[in-house]
Every structure is written in C-alpha cells, then in structure tokens.
Model the fold of this input.
Amino acid sequence: MTQLAGEYIPSTMQWVRDQVEQYERTGGREGGTLRETGIPVVIVSMRGVASGSVRKIALMRVECNGEYALVASYGGAPKHPAWYHNLVAHPTEVTVQDGPEPFLVHVRLVEGEEYNTWWARSVAVFAPYAQYKEKTSRRIPLFVASRPQA
Done:
C-alpha cells in the first residue's frame, strides 16, 4: 500500500472527513460516489503546503488511459481551493485511490488543447463543471495525475 508519510490532518468539512474515512476503510466499496449523485469519486492525498501534513479530498473520478483529471473548480468560487496550492507546491507527493489501494502519482497543470480535452472529459462526467466555469471569472485549473515513469 502506498501512503504519504506524515501526520494526517482531516478536512475541516465533516462530510469530506466521513467520505474519506468510509472510502479508505472499505477499499472503495462504500463512499465511492459524491453524496447522492451516484457519480464516482477518487480519494486524493497530498502534502499540505503550509502544514507539511497529509491532506485528503474526494474528487470526481475523471479517468482516461490510467490518468486522472483533478479539477480545481471550488464550485465556481472566485478563488482556487486550498488543495490547488498543495498540488502546485508538491506535485510528486500525491496519491490517488481508485479502488482498494492508493497509488503514487505525479500531477501537472495542463493548458491549451490538452486542457480542452480533459475539460470536455470532466464535464462529461460531472456536468455542473460547465456551470462553475460560467460562474467564475478565473480559469478553473485542471491537473492531470499520472503514475510516475519507471
């Protein structure tokens, strides 16, 4: 099992804490969808930029050929979610759990045509992303998480 070393600081949001705990405890058999939507999620663990501690979130499961989109939409809020800064600061200290076991990934921000391709995939999985884009003046960042090359 691949876990990030260090102290884990759970989310300040109770539903996120509960979902992460349930997903991890059951190897993804429970807690694998965004609340009542039925849309699959993955658990993303990362190093906190300020604390250095391990942080975990559930994000929509947008997967293609073993890579995952991590969409920093923050529901269309005017600023980036806190975890965006964690990934920018520590792009190689990230795991994704899509099923029983987490695995190490490296993340990178994508732009241009690659952004457009992953954005379309993301909206196909979770249509509200399109509304979030209309709601905010910022360009919603999109990371691609890939397993490190051997």
